[in-house]
Write a structure and sequence with these properties.
This protein is mainly α. The chain contains two helices and no strands.
Amino acid sequence: MHYAAGQSAADVDGEAQRQALVSAAPGYVAAAIERIAFDGALGLTPTQQVLLRDRAVELDARVVEDLTGVTVPI
């Protein structure tokens, strides 16, 4: 992986890992928010649930669709 001029293999590897996480993070966060929103143990109001679901959709609508089976407007 030592292909970037002037960078050590460790630096290049670290940057590759950071970039992978940056691109994947919105989907993971959307999934977590969607699951938290409808966790009955938290006692969220319907309004709070909708607000969280909307935020999850903003982050990654496809993930929310996959989790819920419902097509969400983008």
